[in-house]
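Agenda item 2: NAP complex prediction
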Amino acid sequence: MHFAVSVDGFVAGPDHDMRFMQRTTVRDGLHREYIESTGAILAGRNGFDSAIGDSRPYGGAWKGPIFVLTHHPEDAQPAEDITFLSCPVDEAVRIALAAALGKNVEVFSPTICAQLLPLGLIDEIDIHIVPVLLGDGVRLYDAIGGHPLHLRRDSDTPSRTVDLRYQPIRTTSGK
Ligand SMILES: NC(=O)c1ccc[n+]([C@@H]2O[C@H](COP(=O)([O-])OP(=O)(O)OC[C@H]3O[C@@H](n4cnc5c(N)ncnc54)[C@H](OP(=O)(O)O)[C@@H]3O)[C@@H](O)[C@H]2O)c1
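Presented output:
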């Protein structure tokens, strides 16, 4: 499970708007690490229709199989490297893992991650916090009526919080 996330927990703004990522910079070598460790990507149809359809992860620097889950593959626009799957979510993971040839499968869909977490099929939740508050959009994790799912951070004490301090950047346009 790998996402850039706003401080208030959104992976995309309203209507799958991803412009919040345009102003961000990442540490040197970060993308290279993921490009090398990723063997396949599993995504959902909304992500495909709104983003992957005409762009590729890591600015096109990563090459590999991308699997897109959808209940209606027949109306999806065929694209290079994309395989549309219409199968149970655990089977989709098996297919992607086989294609990843021992490397990681990155799941690029909060909807699919929410299905995989209770099945124990997510090994790691890997997030990069983007210094912005979006207020609305697609949440990292939505499980209506769900129960807390406690997390551990690498080798850190299981219950330890992470302390971050931000100051709002005041602009005249408000954007
Ligand atoms: N910030 C980041 O780093 C980052 C990274 C990746 C993606 N994103 C964003 O995340 C958002 C993804 O949005 P989302 O979670 O709402 O949508 P999504 O997972 O991309 O798409 C949901 C759709 O996937 C299909 N689907 C999901 N589970 C399925 C299953 N078990 N079987 C068959 N089909 C299934 C369904 O499509 P059908 O309706 O066709 O059946 C469902 O409506 C996008 O805006 C994307 O740009 C952000």
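Discussion summary: The first strand starts at residue 2 and ends at 6.
Owner for follow-up: CH.
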